[in-house]
Amino acid sequence: MRRVLTILIAAVAALSASAQKVVTVNTSADEIVHLWNNSTAKYSNQMEKDELIKGRHKVYNTSSTELYIFTPAKEKATGYTVVIYPGGGYKYLSFPITFPEWLRDNGITAVVVKYRLPNYGHYQAMLEDAIGAIDYMRNNAEKYNIDPHKIGVCGNSAGGHLAAWVSNIMEDGSKPHFSILIYGAMTRNEYHNSYNANKIMFGHNVTPAQVDTASTQDLVGPTTPPALMLLSDDDDIVRPIASTSYYKALKHYGVPASMHIYPSGGHGWSGRMKWEYRQQWLDAVRDWILNLDENTKRE
């Protein structure tokens, strides 16, 4: 009887998850690919609420994983792909709109990942989505006219932390080939970040040992992918030392890295059209990617 009851509970939970409302962000993506949801993935974030969009592009309560793929014209294609993890403090996803379009216009395939948020302790689902997006693009490289050896990751704020995290925990030979970390929250203590998302990642009873597993400067090793970091000196949300600590760790192991610190801009400038350094940071991204072989020679 107990076994039958367990099966019934599992079936009801799966039905409930599949019945949840799933939203689609209004973008100019050329294709949207569904990877899985809480019923079909290995891990679940146990989200019971319907997905919700606030404003133009803030997505809450994610329970279904989609890839928004921006594909450049064949005559422009460079073969490079950037898999983008949106920021939002792991409370929501602040979906980028203009940046993936800009990458596409410059011949670089962009993939924005609508990943399942950790929902107070279910970080495994988020990591499954982040890694799954890389695997999907590698496995479908021919379809998308990309080079499977030129797939990198990118994220801003919490998304920068996620990009650095997967860059270090994936097995050698399967790691992304580069990372672009935009005011990324790579370290996980309050000295580096005024907003602390550790409870959202690991649960209300988070331990220091768990925090250490997600502090990416401590995960860096000689096979960590090369990194480009962009940030502002006056950022009081994710303080500059979060990036400089990661940079220091990369250089300790001889990993190629470049860092641009702009004098002003605070936090969250990647989508600002009128930010005074907008063209400079975009040029830095394009030039670094397109000269990756030269820029990432190992010491």
Number of strands: 11
Measure the end-to-end span. Answer: 64 Å
Shape: globular
Main sheet: strand order? 1-4-7-5-8-9-10-11
Biggest β-sheet description: 8 strands, mixed
Radius of gyration from the alpha-carbon trace, in angstroms: 19 Å
Strand share of the residues? 15-25%
Estimate the mean pLDDT confidence.
91
CATH uppermost class: Alpha Beta
CATH topology name: Rossmann fold
CATH homologous superfamily placement: Alpha/Beta hydrolase fold, catalytic domain
Weakly predicted, low-confidence segments: 1-17
Taken together, the total number of domains comes to 1
Structural class: alpha/beta
Q: What is the helical fraction, as a range of percent? A: 25-40%
Tally of DSSP helical segments: 9
Order of helices and strands: HEEEEEEHEHEHEHHEHEHH
CATH architecture verdict: 3-Layer(aba) Sandwich
What does this structure look like?
The chain has one domain: Alpha/Beta hydrolase fold, catalytic domain (Rossmann fold), CATH 3.40.50.1820. 32% of the residues lie in helices and 18% in strands. The chain has nine helices and eleven strands. The chain has an eight-stranded mixed β-sheet with strand order 1-4-7-5-8-9-10-11, with helices on both faces. A three-stranded antiparallel β-sheet has the order 2-3-6, with no helix packed on it. The longest helix has 18 residues.
